[in-house]
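Good morning,

Attaching, inline, the backbone tokens for the sequence recovery test we're adding to the shared suite. The designed sequence is right after.
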């Protein structure tokens, strides 16, 4: 897997824009972990209860994913083969081309089971396998094998801290466009400059009045990307950055997650 560097590196002269993209339910048309559980785990009532606990903030994603790996079959080949059959958005490759044409950068930020991301991206196009990916490390060897190289050092709720991935790109002088669909994506969306949301992320945006753009397929975001660079909705050069922020504003400096609001060392969001 092409691991994203913890401190992002940007090519000189590139457009100062980073697209951070969720994988499960976003690039993939279904959540791969959920699909594996629905196929191979028989206690659907307990499965629904675990999902409810996660959505309600009673458990964090690290705890949930380790439970997932404990109850899924101890058969790496079966899980990998099944994950490879699940549908993805075939328009994603065209969207990546639009980002690269504009000179912007793209990073996959996934808080899922992780082991299928690189191979599934390669199914969409061989060049996509080299995209930088920030996700959990999962050798598909049970719950003890999982590790979280992109987790927060003082907060253990999420496996991949998407919030800090957004902030790392912004520290590098980037406008961040975040695309997602799930529960943990709200933590990234709160800090991103531009948000594309669907699913539970869109429901959250609507509930709290968070600015976002609705979407379904990456072809829509690709068309928007080309138009946004052409008409100044996104900055094409570093010299345009201050003017862009003066017009569009800056993301909030406060926090809705992490040790700043929950305290250090938590494995589930505070009540």
């Amino acid at each position: 897997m092409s691991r994203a560097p913890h401190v992002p590196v940007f090519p000189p002269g590139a457009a100062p824009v980073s697209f951070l993209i969720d994988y499960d339910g976003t690039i993939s048309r279904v959540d791969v972990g959920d699909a594996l559980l629905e196929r191979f785990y028989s206690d659907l009532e307990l499965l629904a209860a675990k999902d409810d606990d996660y959505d309600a903030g009673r458990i964090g994603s690290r705890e949930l994913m380790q439970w997932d790996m404990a109850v899924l079959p101890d058969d790496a080949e079966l899980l990998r083969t099944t994950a490879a059959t699940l549908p993805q958005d075939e328009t994603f490759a065209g969207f990546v081309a639009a980002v690269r044409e504009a000179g912007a950068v793209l990073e996959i930020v996934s808080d899922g089971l992780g082991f299928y991301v690189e191979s599934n991206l390669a199914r969409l196009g061989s060049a996509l396998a080299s995209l930088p990916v920030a996700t959990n490390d999962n050798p598909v060897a049970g719950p003890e094998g999982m590790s979280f190289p992109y987790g927060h050092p003082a907060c253990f709720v999420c496996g991949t801290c998407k919030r800090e991935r957004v902030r790392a790109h912004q520290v590098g002088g980037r406008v961040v466009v975040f695309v997602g669909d799930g529960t943990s994506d709200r933590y990234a969306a709160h800090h991103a400059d531009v948000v594309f949301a669907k699913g539970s992320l869109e429901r959250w945006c609507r509930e709290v009045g968070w600015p976002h753009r609705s979407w379904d397929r990456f072809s829509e975001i690709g068309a928007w990307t080309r138009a946004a660079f052409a008409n100044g909705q996104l900055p094409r050069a570093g010299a345009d950055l201050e003017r862009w922020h003066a017009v569009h504003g800056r993301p909030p400096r406060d926090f809705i997650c992490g040790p700043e609001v929950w305290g250090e060392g938590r494995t589930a969001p505070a009540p």
